[in-house]
Design goal:
Elements (H helix, E strand, L loop, with lengths): L3 H21 L1 H13 L24 H17 L6 E4 L6 H21 L3 H15 L1 E9 L4 E8 L3 E3 L11 E8 L1 H10 L16 H9 L14 E10 L16 E8 L5 E6 L14 E5 L11 H27 L3 E3 L4 E2 L14 E2 L7 H4 E3 L7 H17 L16 H11 L1 H27 L25 E4 L8 H17 L7
Antiparallel strand pairs: 1-14, 2-3, 2-9, 4-5, 5-6, 6-7, 7-8, 10-13, 11-12
Length: about 525
């Protein structure tokens, strides 16, 4: 039990550190918010106000949105098969009984991930869209004290705060998961989750720009009419603390910073919990692994590049060209012009209907209507803009890793091997991402399995009604967990082409090859 002064000292240092981390990523979040507009998810009215110098059309090119959707669909097709994401296997020399045990555990693990933890599939699908857009998303694997079972929840990029010097999750000196928690959830965590029971002041409504921009893209306006419904902003931080500095006796080498988890209410700076983050008996005091990173394209720093960074500027160019073309078409069909001062009509706008000839009163000295009114010399749509748009769009598709094989009459009799080579050449980016996803999901599933090992009382969640009832963790503690996806084959089309290649090879082989 720590003294209040010790907790206050750790909390003050931690709050100052996270505030600095937030300031260091302000420009990144501003760029992230601008990218949400580039998705074009919000339907906007055209700017037809008189005197407006803005584009009439508000249409946005769907290049960024298309790339995010394709990336999400490709990743989910491999990571989330209908039968479950888990493939259990044994390593080394095994017996038939051990293989049957591994298969039984794999089936029950898939049952848990699909039927018990029913939030896993929709949560992961949403996470893959966020990953495709911003470049990184994180999975937080922990035992939920409210659900009383292992869970894996997505932590989106704006809610995961790290220092500017971080290069890897394992080496980051400070990691913070920002959580919006409603008052009823907060009370339940205090009663069941090991948090200190205390009366927190009313929270400030979380009007951060990223949250507001995300809600706006969905057509949702945050309600602030009921202060009692405002959520608390909780900082769950993973930090390293020198126990000697705060008078803690952890029986560790002097001066060695140890990993802790601190839970704090951001607005009041009240500490709700402080936990050790190393396993009991670990003489090296290694930090427990909680987060797994899913990245798209590794870049120059800790944060990976997403479609926002890869094709964001190109999407802005395509949007500008598309708006120019739309405006040109509008002006060509509904042209404006100028008139001599003094020309009068029934209305200020001369807009005759079909078969209608409105009267005009010309000023003195003007006897030719063509001298009183002149249309603006709007030009036709330039072919250069169309060519430029096609060129940029092609570059965007190549950079985004879109696989589009040429098909048709010219490709009817191409050998399977040639098509396989073309697919491999055009899908290298997608294959690289898929292999990284395979490794990340393996770490995620292994952490979930480890939670079952640490909490044998949760084994009941693995047991199906008509299946095996797991009694001890020794039955599966040595079973190796692998994702159901194949890291060497990034899509179903590749698997089909491989099968066709093997079939053609077998049919073309000489008879003596198969004795």
């Amino acid at each position: 039990e720590m003294a209040p002064g010790m907790i206050s000292g750790i909390a003050t240092d931690y709050h100052a550190g996270v505030t600095s981390d937030e300031q260091s990523r302000s420009e990144f979040l501003a760029n992230y918010n601008r990218g949400i507009d580039l998705l074009g998810l919000k339907i906007e009215e055209s700017s037809a106000s008189r005197g407006s110098r803005q584009s009439i059309s508000k249409v946005r090119h769907p290049a960024l949105l298309k790339a995010c959707i394709l990336s999400q669909a490709t990743s989910c097709a491999e990571l989330l098969p209908p039968t479950g994401p888990v493939r259990a296997e044994t390593i080394g020399d095994t017996t038939a009984a051990e293989d049957d045990l591994a298969n039984a555990f794999g089936n029950d693990f898939n049952y848990y991930m699909t039927d018990v933890a029913r939030e896993y599939y929709p949560d992961t699908r949403r996470a893959m869209f966020y990953r495709a857009f911003g470049g990184s998303v994180y999975k937080k694997i922990y035992r939920c004290p409210l659900r009383r079972r292992p869970v894996s929840e997505s932590v989106y990029l704006p809610d995961f705060i790290v220092g500017e010097d971080a290069v890897d999750l394992s080496t980051a000196q400070r990691k913070t998961n920002q959580i919006l928690m409603w008052p009823n959830q907060l009370q339940r965590m205090m009663l069941q989750g090991g948090w200190r029971q205390m009366n927190l002041p009313a929270p400030q409504y979380p009007n951060n720009p990223t949250r507001l921009k995300t809600l706006s893209s969905q057509g949702i306006s945050p309600s602030q009419t009921r202060p009692q419904d405002a959520p608390h902003t909780i900082w769950e931080g993973y930090i390293f603390v020198d126990p000697d500095e705060y008078g803690l006796d952890e029986h560790a080498p002097k001066g060695l910073p140890l990993p802790y988890k601190i839970v704090m209410d951001r607005d009041s700076k009240d500490v709700l919990a402080l936990h050790r983050m190393w396993r009991e008996g670990d003489e090296d005091f290694r930090e427990r692994e909680v987060f797994v990173k899913y990245g798209l394209i590794p870049g120059l720093g800790f944060l990976d590049y997403g479609m926002l960074h890869l094709i964001g500027n190109s999407t802005r160019v395509l949007t500008t060209i598309l708006q120019i073309l739309c405006d040109k078409g509008m002006l060509a069909n509904f042209p404006g012009g100028v008139k001599v001062k003094g020309v009068k009509a029934i209305t200020n706008e001369i807009n005759p209907g079909l078969g209608e000839f409105p009267d005009l009163q010309l000023p003195d000295g003007v006897d030719d209507i063509r001298k009183a009114i002149m249309g603006m010399p709007y030009g036709d749509v330039s072919a250069i803009f169309i060519q430029l748009m096609e060129l940029v769009a092609k570059d965007v598709e190549q950079l985004a890793g879109t696989v589009e094989l040429e098909v048709g009459n010219a490709r009817t009799n191409v050998p399977v091997g040639t098509v396989m080579a073309l697919m491999e050449q055009q899908s290298r980016t997608m294959s690289s991402v898929h292999r990284a996803d395979h490794y990340s999901q393996k770490r995620e599933l292994m952490l979930i399995r480890d939670l079952f090992v640490e909490h044998p009382e949760d084994l009941r969640w693995l047991s199906r009604k008509s299946g095996r009832v797991w009694q001890t963790i020794e039955e599966f503690a040595d079973v190796d967990i692998q994702p159901a996806s194949d890291p060497s084959v990034p899509s179903a089309s590749h698997r089909m082409m491989q099968a066709m290649f093997l079939k053609d090879t077998a049919l073309s082989a000489p008879p003596w090859a198969f004795p």
